[in-house]
UniProtKB/TrEMBL annotation:
PROSITE patterns: UPF0001
PTM sites of type N6-(pyridoxal phosphate)lysine: K35
Keyword terms: Pyridoxal phosphate
Gene3D superfamilies the UniProt entry points to: Alanine racemase
Family: Belongs to the pyridoxal phosphate-binding protein YggS/PROSC family.
Transmembrane segments: none
Function, in words: Pyridoxal 5'-phosphate (PLP)-binding protein, which is involved in PLP homeostasis.
Classification via Pfam families: Ala_racemase_N (PF01168)
HAMAP family: PLP_homeostasis
Domain Alanine racemase N-terminal: 35-222
Tagged with keyword Nucleotide-binding: no
Name recorded for this polypeptide: Pyridoxal phosphate homeostasis protein
Organism: Ornithinibacillus xuwenensis
Lineage of the organism: Bacteria, Bacillati, Bacillota, Bacilli, Bacillales
Length: 223
């Protein structure tokens, strides 16, 4: 299917999920995840009107970035090795995988400007998932306030591997509640307005639970 057709279907689903949760579709940012696909297909996504692109590995990110440069807003969504920070830091617009102090320190050291980060949280507790435990997030935010180049714009999570919609929804809801608690702290360096949650199979649930950034690969550009 061409990307513009897929995008229309996704937009219809977004509309419906926003209707159910009394939200505006304008609040929802679609990140086209292009990790599975070619430059050609990525170009199709941009032509269809996708503005945000996401890659989960440094190599894939560099390949796409070198080709498209500032035509897109760039999201790094995969786990990030500390030693790879210097290669991507002046190119990414958002990092979705801030999950440890050593990474915060390296980002602060290597960047010349403020970096928009999401703190990745392992809400489901699955061993295979990256991210910090929910109760570690507030202490982490307090520790990183000394790293002046880091701005925590939101929280990110991955849904657990299950078909149980209630379980998935519960994870998204927990992340939203954590975000709300953080907002009440009014941290200067962590406004935490955004929630990066929801992928091809569960973005409708994520939107109903408050997602502002949905990361869609297979249903948008294919796999
Ligand atoms: C691959 C990936 C996605 C997109 O997955 P789909 O199920 O294909 O939509 C979203 N987020 C992260 C972190 C990913 O690695």
């Amino acid at each position: 299917m061409d990307v513009s057709h897929n995008l229309e279907m996704i937009q219809a689903t977004i509309q419906e999920a926003c209707g159910k949760s009394k939200r505006s579709p304008k609040e929802i940012n679609i990140i086209g995840v292009t990790k599975y696909v070619t430059i050609e297909r990525t170009k199709e996504a941009l032509q269809a009107g996708i503005e945000h692109l996401g890659e989960n590995r440094q190599e894939g990110f560099m390949e796409k970035y070198e080709h498209f440069g500032k035509q897109a807003t760039w999201h790094f969504i995969g786990s990030l090795q500390t030693r790879k920070v210097k290669e991507i830091i002046d190119k990414v617009d958002f990092i979705h995988s801030l999950d440890r102090l050593s990474l915060a320190k390296e980002i602060d050291k290597r960047s010349e400007k403020t970096v928009n980060c999401f703190v990745q949280v392992n809400v489901s507790g699955e061993e295979s998932k990256h991210g910090m435990k929910p109760d570690q997030v507030v202490p982490f935010l307090e520790e990183i306030s000394k790293y002046s180049k880091i701005k925590v714009v939101g929280l990110m999570t991955m849904a657990p591997h299950t078909d149980d919609e209630q379980v998935i929804r519960g994870v998204f809801r927990d992340l939203a509640e954590l975000r709300n608690a953080i907002k009440e702290e009014h941290y200067q360096h962590a406004p935490c307005d955004f929630l990066s949650m929801g992928m091809s199979n569960d973005y409708h649930l994520a939107i109903e639970e408050g997602a502002t950034h949905i990361r869609i690969g297979s249903k948008l550009v294919g796999s």
